[in-house]
Amino acid sequence: MTMTLAELLAPVTPERFFTEYHDRKPLHVQGGAAKFAHVLSWRQINRLLDMTHIWSGHSLQLVMDGTPVPPEQYCGRATSRDNAQVLQPEAPKVRDWVKRGASIVMNDVDSLTPGLAAVSAALEGAGLGKAQANVYISWQSHKAFPAHFDTHEVWAVQVEGEKTWNLWDGRAEWPIAHPVFRAMPQAQHEQQKGRLREKVLMRPGDLLYLPRGWYHDALAEAPASVHIAYGVHAPLGMDLLNILVERALYDPEFRKPLPRQDGSAAAKFALTSRAGALGQRLAELCREPKVMEVLERFVADYRFHRGGNDLLAARDIAPASEKPGVETDAPAFRVLAPGAKPVRRGAEWVLKTAGGVLPLAGAEVEAAGWLLARPDVAEPELRAAHPGVDAAALLARLRDAGLLVAA
């Protein structure tokens, strides 16, 4: 599964984005419900959460109305895959907190499904930096976080429900992941956020871009809301300093001792002169072709390297999906018209769609009503629930009518 920056931003072009918005101001792109249907669904969220051993009190966090829930209150002590003692989330405890309205934060998910990884790859493929993703699941009228800024760009992808974002005028001046910026008291954030710039209502298929340091907060408007926040970390000027430190190791001028200080004017002058000479030498090192070659390579390759495994291909063995008669996991379809119901027209039953009406026959009426009341469905599930229906044919008709999309 692949995705490009152009597909992510559409209908806004990458050229317009980089000219008008990148590192300048927020951008809200409205999409259709099908745009990000392949990225994440409730079905996939539950599957991920059921991978118990990949989660800990750090990777899976709960937040109740702006206050983090201590891991001890929703986790139990367990042994990790690395044979270390960890606090591991327990489903009954998580459910209890969700019933109270606690938001769920699933950290570092950018490689856990093909859809999540596709967005990461699109951002990194455009040279924007390293893309790390968290899933935020929140419930109506419960705010997870107060007004704040992030120390990276934010690309928010809405996949379920609705959420209103408050975007403020305030912007921190290119903050980084350092306690100087991360340990600010909330009162200081409230003072620096400024006036309300705009309210953005995010619906499934929408994208919101926020430059690094932009103040914001958000609140779910639907019974449930799910968005993935991709934090994009660009290479910084400070990374050049790290490269120069490595280069300076081979320069004797930086290995020499600094002038001894005895409190005299001459000693102070000698130290000032030496510091100026070293600064000039750093400027010369910045112009060295080898240093620039290392810097260019560092910036060009500044991304996470995910996936790439194909063990059967390495042994030249055909996977099961290519062998006749072997059934693999069936794909799921996301319902784009939740709550849609068959209606009677005279002696016939139909489904109303954006493009008209879709006739239904016999057992299809009950089957269509059943699956449209779900967030998603797979063909085996439809066959099991309604064996008298040609499941594949009904799913294809509903998909062609725009009521379903491959998840």
UniProtKB/TrEMBL annotation:
Alphabetical keyword list: Iron, Metal-binding
Record-linked PANTHER family: MINA53 MYC INDUCED NUCLEAR ANTIGEN, RIBOSOMAL OXYGENASE 1
InterPro entries per UniProt: JmjC_dom, NO66-like
Cofactor: Fe(2+)
Domain spans labelled JmjC: 77-249
Protein name: Cupin-like domain-containing protein
